[in-house]
Amino acid sequence: MTQQRSTVQQNFINGEIERALSRAGLPHNHAIRRVLDSEAQFIGVRNAGVNCNGESLDSRIKELQNNPEYKHTFTQPLTKVAKNDIRELTKNFDAIAAGTAVVD
Length: 104
Description:
Helices cover 43% and strands 13% of the residues. It is of the alpha+beta class. The protein is elongated.
């Protein structure tokens, strides 16, 4: 939903999107930035804020993580191996050493 925004509003929205991406551990130039910017709505006067279609930026980022169109742009969670499971530790030793698996 694109709306006419003043320069001040656009700068405020950009800052809020930057902070939301940072909280999610995503780079400032992540692929969903365009989506967030196009859906962002400046709300409030005294207590200004930004939302996307009535929900917070953080909630929208979580939704986009499950969207098949953008899912591949997010890092996949690491494989977890139980520290008490010797068989799994041995099986995943190389992955643990490479940092693609973690001991839990």
